[in-house]
Amino acid sequence: MKKIIVLLAAFIFAINTFGQVVEEWVSRFNGVSNAVDEPTAMAVDDSGNVYITGRSTGVGSIVNPWDIVTIKYDSNGVEIWTATFGNDNNQEEANDIKVDNEGNVYITGYSVNDQLNTDLLTIKYDSNGDTVWVRKNKGPANEGGVATAIAIDTISGRVFVTGSSGFNNDYTTIAYEPNGAQLWVSSYDGPGNSIDIAYAIVYHSGAVLVTGSSRTTTMSQSDDYLTIKLSAATGDTIWTRRYDGSGF
Fold first, then answer.
1. Are 161 and 174 in contact (CB under 8 A)?
2. If pLDDT is split at 50, 70 and 90, which confidence band does 1 have?
3. Alpha carbon of 30 to those of 9, 38, 72, 94, 187: distances in Å?
4. What pTM did the predictor assign?
């Protein structure tokens, strides 16, 4: 059955007596397998171009693993390019997307490797949708992981991704130079030596701020907010803050 990765409608308020909402455009995408296609993240550049990324059922094996599909539309909803990243026999998914001032597009998520473990995956496309570089990282403990969010320093061109890695899911943040060279990797294991997962990342004034959840004890099901400020140049921790609400 045909599924939809993008059902994107831009709306404008018509200038009339009733202030009626009018659909401006809709675009649909159906992948190569004519099966399940699901968007996970969106970005818009200063020209109004719209970028969608997500996962699309591939054709490589019996189980039809996911591929990453990224689409660029202009402000009128006309498709400019579509880029697909995938291994015929393994699975890839995108979790976040960012666009820099030059129209380069950055995707982050995960890729299943040949050992059936997951790598933190980051992809850079140029403004035409051509692949500039692909980087996979198994995390500091070499146990694999998943990237959840990405940020860009538009001045230096450095790219920062965050997520979790390792058997116990530690915070993992990676910095890349514009050419894809790895600058540093930072990890954090909370006091519970348990599950710590970063969900969001922001670059600001020479620092990278990461936030997510952190388990308080190994056996506990209680998580705290955990926010960490890192040096964008070195990855060194500037400060760490936890928030525990009033509930149990």
1. yes
2. very low
3. 16, 10, 15, 17, 38
4. 0.86
